[in-house]
Amino acid sequence: MRDILGAWLSVLCVLHCSLPILLLSFGANFGLHEFLESIHDEWLHAVLITPIVLILGVSLPKAYMSHRNPVPAYLAALGVFTLTVGVLSGHLVETILTVVGSTLVISAHLINRKSLKSHVEAVMS
């Protein structure tokens, strides 16, 4: 369950970073600029990245003790690093890096979940 929640939080991160660019491209004529700036405030980055890191910190070590697959941890570490660098960098680079970082974190959660399920099935049979 934690991996599903973590993956969905990372999807929200992707939407948070890519949606303003898409809406600004298509919605400039509709006066959406102020709205887009308000949803892209800096404090929202901390609000999104904090639970992502916390869920990774709880989910991955416990699962690793069962399935012993290091790939989710590697992907998660690279994803969090990329997210952090993205948040600290400029606008266009920020979007690219946060989308890549979020995708890596999503992949880490899904591989972790799959590895854990495979391990449980192997133990049960």
Automatic annotation (TrEMBL):
InterPro entries: Mercury-R_MerC. GO terms for cellular component: membrane. Keywords: Membrane, Transmembrane, Transmembrane helix. The chain crosses the membrane at residues 43-64, 71-89. Coiled coil: none annotated. Pfam families: MerC. One of its GO terms (molecular function) is mercury ion transmembrane transporter activity. This is MerC family mercury resistance protein.
